[in-house]
């Protein structure tokens, strides 16, 4: 493996640089200042669902240590910071007036970022649905769309005088497929294709929120989805059909409505979505950017006869993988392929792309006594930034690249067992120690501007 630190890296001219986190993964303080209960509180408190039995406490404890995070961002030199707002800090039960202490936390965070010369770029929803709303059906219920619009109004009124760029909803595919279809993530439902109404309600919530934000002066608003480049395991007709279906469910089902105002043909799945008059116009209102989270390619084979779904994911042949296992293959070219294919598929309906997350977890110690040498992460980031540059060279407009993650954090169902951060976090003491990848990214950002 070539030393990425010494590589001459192609970097698109004028690209913005960012780093990302999410509220539940870094804030800790689950019971502080009137915070309510989310579906992730329910998930982590259910024995056996989180790999290492952790509960996100204290973790980075950013609710109390956000000043340290701002200092790291300022030193890193990023243009923007992607963070998320915890819905249950603002509305503990998902309705009613905002809790002053919760709103004030994000108010201080925004001011601190601006004072440090870092533009705040918040995400309204990064998976922490209020438990009270899940009890009423969650994203299966159209009422949740109305509740999300109300929450958006509160945050737009609180921060909209200073925040001009917003993500609405993060990775609706993960909520629908992993959260409601197969139960790997909160809320832990096992509905298979009966989960798909959650797709429509999340996309409608995005459209409603985008309209509210723009009415209150937002300059750019967009959704961000976890996309992947899908390939069949073999050239057999069965594998190619399975890969097509998976690509439709993982990629097209979420991108098509936002970018074209129409869903792909779901007839092969026997699914009908709960679309009402006017919904598709709301969902398909043009956005200022389209967010793409990308981690790995996906290789699909036909499922055995009688399986509940017609496809199965298998390891991508001939590639290394990250600490998440053999299904998380490292293939930077797949990012180029996805971006160039999206540009061909959607043409001028594809707005400027923002890479909203890209990063990798590798095995690392829980405690360190100095900067951690993490060459595998540096190589992963370098090669994927190069893949973005290749896509740009082929005519794709990409305006921003975001590393996941600024900090080692609570990695959902894997708890504290996976580390994605540029900064090592001791999850017992919350101590932060920048890794070699932090210094590498800082140098890259500085050199890209020289």
UniProtKB/TrEMBL annotation:
One of its GO terms (molecular function) is beta-glucosidase activity. It comes from the Bacteria. The keyword Hydrolase applies. SUPFAM superfamilies: (Trans)glycosidases (SSF51445). The keyword Cytoplasm does not apply. Its EC number is 3.2.1.21. Coiled coil: none annotated. It catalyses: Hydrolysis of terminal, non-reducing beta-D-glucosyl residues with release of beta-D-glucose. Keywords: Carbohydrate metabolism, Cellulose degradation, Glycosidase, Hydrolase, Polysaccharide degradation. InterPro entries: GH (IPR017853), Glyco_hydro_1 (IPR001360), Glyco_hydro_1_beta-glucosidase (IPR017736). It is an enzyme of class 3 (hydrolase). Belongs to the glycosyl hydrolase 1 family. This is Beta-glucosidase. It comes from Microbacterium murale. The lineage of its organism: Bacteria, Bacillati, Actinomycetota, Actinomycetes, Micrococcales.
């Amino acid at each position: 493996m070539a030393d990425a630190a010494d590589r001459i890296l192609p970097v698109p001219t004028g690209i913005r640089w960012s780093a990302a986190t999410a509220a539940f993964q870094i804030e800790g303080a689950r019971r502080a200042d009137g915070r309510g209960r989310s579906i992730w509180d329910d998930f982590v408190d259910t024995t056996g669902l989180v790999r290492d039995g952790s509960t996100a406490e204290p973790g980075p404890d950013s609710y109390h240590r956000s000043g340290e995070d701002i200092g790291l961002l300022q030193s890193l030199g990023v243009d923007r910071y992607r963070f998320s707002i915890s819905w249950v800090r603002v509305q503990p039960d998902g309705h009613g007036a905002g809790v002053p202490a919760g709103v004030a936390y994000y108010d201080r965070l925004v001011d601190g970022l601006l004072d440090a010369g870092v533009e705040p770029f918040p995400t309204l929803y990064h998976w922490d649905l209020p438990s009270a709303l899940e009890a009423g059906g969650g994203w299966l219920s159209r009422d949740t769309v109305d509740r999300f619009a109300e929450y958006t109004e509160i945050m737009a009124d609180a921060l909209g005088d200073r925040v001009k760029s917003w993500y609405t909803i993060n990775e609706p595919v993960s909520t629908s497929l992993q959260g409601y279809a197969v139960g790997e993530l909160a809320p832990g439902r096992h509905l298979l294709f009966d989960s798909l109404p959650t797709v429509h309600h999340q996309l409608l919530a995005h459209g409603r929120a985008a309209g509210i934000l723009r009415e209150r002066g937002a300059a750019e608003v967009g959704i961000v989805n976890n996309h992947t480049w899908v390939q069949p395991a073999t050239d057999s007709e069965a594998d190619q059909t399975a890969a097509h279906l998976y690509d439709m469910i993982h990629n097209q089902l979420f991108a098509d409505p936002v970018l074209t105002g129409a869903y792909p043909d779901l007839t092969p799945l026997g699914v009908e979505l709960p679309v009402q008059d006017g919904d598709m116009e709301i969902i398909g209102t043009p956005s200022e950017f389209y967010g793409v989270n990308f981690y790995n390619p996906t290789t699909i084979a036909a499922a055995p006869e009688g399986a509940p779904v017609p496809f199965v994911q298998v390891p991508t042949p001939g590639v290394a993988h990250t600490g998440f296992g053999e299904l998380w293959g490292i293939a930077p070219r797949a990012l180029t392929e996805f971006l160039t294919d999206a540009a061909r598929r959607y043409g001028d309906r594809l707005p400027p792309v923002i890479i909203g997350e890209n990063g990798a977890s590798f095995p690392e110690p829980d405690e360190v006594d100095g900067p951690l040498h993490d060459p595998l992460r540096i190589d992963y980031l370098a090669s994927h930034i190069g893949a973005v540059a290749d896509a740009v060279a082929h005519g794709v407009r990409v305006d921003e690249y975001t590393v996941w993650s600024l900090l080692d954090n609570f990695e959902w169902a894997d708890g504290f067992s996976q580390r994605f951060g540029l900064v090592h976090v001791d999850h017992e003491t919350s101590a932060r120690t920048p890794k070699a990848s932090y210094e590498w990214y800082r140098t890259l950002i500085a050199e890209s501007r020289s």
